[in-house]
Amino acid sequence: MKTKAAGSENRHLPNRLGIKSWVWGGNYTLERYLYTLHRVTGLGLLLYITLHLAMNGFRLGGVESWIDIMEILGMSGFKVGEYLVAAAFIIHALNGGRLILQHLGYTLGKPKPPVYPYVDSLRRRRPIVWAMLALIVALAVYVLIVFVT
Amino acid sequence: MQELTFKVQRYLPGKDKKAYIQQFTVPLRQGMTVLDGLIYIKENVDNTLSFRSSCRMGICGSCGMFINNFPMLACHTPVEELGTDRIEVRSLPNFPVIRDLVADLDLLFEKHKSIKPYIISPDTEEAEEPTAEFLQSGEELEGYVQFAYCVKCGLCMAACPTVATDALFPGPQSLGQAYRYCTDRRDAGVEERFHQADSRHGVWLCHLAGACSEACPKGVDPALAIQLLKRAMVFDSLRLKKKKKPASIAQPLAESKPKIDVPEFTVKQP
């Protein structure tokens, strides 16, 4: 299978969308772009953890270097960054919970003989996604209020 | 007469290094589909335009194209439904382009073939020389019949963001069909298919973007089939799955006498 697939891609004009399809792949609806949002927030959290570990490394330089770095991190730009991390965490955690359930086939319903106009299982259960998004917005607003006050 | 602007992808192997868009003007007719527009161009404007089509009624799955940035069957897409007089038609993404709008679907068929899309019978003798049909309840049929409507058009593969980034991912079409056969009580190939799907590039790479089901022109819902396949595999590995009983074979019909006697011929036999 590998050889034939690779062979045909070499013979003809390659047309694989690649990673750019995460950003824009076509006129799809909500779930396709939640897929992108989940990945972006995941990568953002990974970046945060890496930076967090690097910043903690300043403790090895003694109290003065730790105080210096804390002063820099206390600037408003970093506060916005911290809020974005919290928001990314909320999105990733709640959407991840939905994905875990749906990856195991829960909340998707049973297969049905297709009757036109076709509505697939994800679209039938879209209220679950709307409820999740509402919860994300509510939590993000709550965290924003906590950050500001 | 109202006119439509068709922006069509062109690519001639050996001549063009990359695909480009050519614009055509097509007169609008009532009930016209995108395929009708392409046929008009081929018959009246440019007979070198290449595209694939056959049944013209959404059954064969030959005319899958990327129409106004969404994978659709050209014969199944009335231009009026698109809500615009500018129609952009490209070859299906994620498949190599042979020429103009003709995508190379080898990849789809190879992946489909690899999951053994047929009943693997536990009784090879009965499979080779069948004596009677296998019995199946209506409920059992409902468990997979939705997935059996697949026409192998490749739209789900064109929509899938994982197929877009991983050439070795089997894709929604073949994984959906793997579930279709695994859930069939007449089939005994579950282990083989689970083993194949449970790989580094296998079923776990599906992260439920749902674009495959959104694009499917036959309501097959491959995203649902893939999630049910994952559940079956998880339950199987945790030994929580009930073993499916193999389908029994129908008993031969007992000889019976008709309840009402067959009337005598009223016309004299010659």
What does this molecule look like?
The complex is a heterodimer of chains A (149) and B (270). The model of chain A has no long low-confidence stretch (mean pLDDT 89). Chain A contains 7 helices and no strands. Chain A has helices at residues 2-11, 20-23, 30-56, 63-73, 76-103, 121-124, 126-148. Chain A has one domain (35-148): Fumarate reductase/succinate dehydrogenase, transmembrane subunit (3 helical TM bundles of succinate and fumarate reductases), CATH 1.20.1300. By secondary structure, chain A is an all-alpha fold. Chain B is α+β, with helices and mostly antiparallel strands and 270 residues long. Chain B folds into 2 domains: 3-103, Ubiquitin-like (UB roll) (Roll); 106-237, Orthogonal Bundle (Fumarate Reductase Iron-sulfur Protein, Chain B, domain 2). Helices cover 32% and strands 13% of the residues of chain B. In chain B, strands 2-1-5-3-4 form a 5-stranded mixed β-sheet. In chain B, a hairpin with a 2-residue loop joins strand 6 and strand 7 (102-103). In chain B, helix 8 packs antiparallel against helix 9 and helix 8 (171-182) crosses helix 11 (222-237). Chain B is flat. At the A-B interface, helix 1, helix 3, helix 5 and helix 6 of A face helix 3, helix 7, helix 10 and helix 11 of B.
CA-atom Rg of chain B in angstroms: 24 Å
Helix content of chain B: 25-40%
- Helical fraction of chain A equals over 70%
Largest interface comes to:
A-B, 51 and 58 residues
Query: CATH first level of chain A: which class?
Result: Mainly Alpha
The span between the termini of chain A is 59 Å
Radius of gyration of chain A: 22 Å
| Helix and strand sequence of chain A | HHHHHHH
Task: Assign an overall shape of chain A.
Answer: elongated
Number of strands of chain A: 0
Q: Name the beta content range of chain A.
A: under 5%
What is the annotated CATH architecture of chain A?
A: Up-down Bundle
CATH topology assignment of the largest domain in chain B? Fumarate Reductase Iron-sulfur Protein, Chain B, domain 2
In CATH terms, what is the architecture of the largest domain in chain B?
A: Orthogonal Bundle
**Overall mean pLDDT score of chain B?**
92
Biggest sheet record of chain A? none
Uncertain spans of chain B: none
Name the CATH superfamily classification of chain A.
Fumarate reductase/succinate dehydrogenase, transmembrane subunit
Multimeric status of the protein: heterodimer
Q: Output the strand order for the largest sheet of chain B.
A: 2-1-5-3-4
**What's the count of strands of chain B?**
7
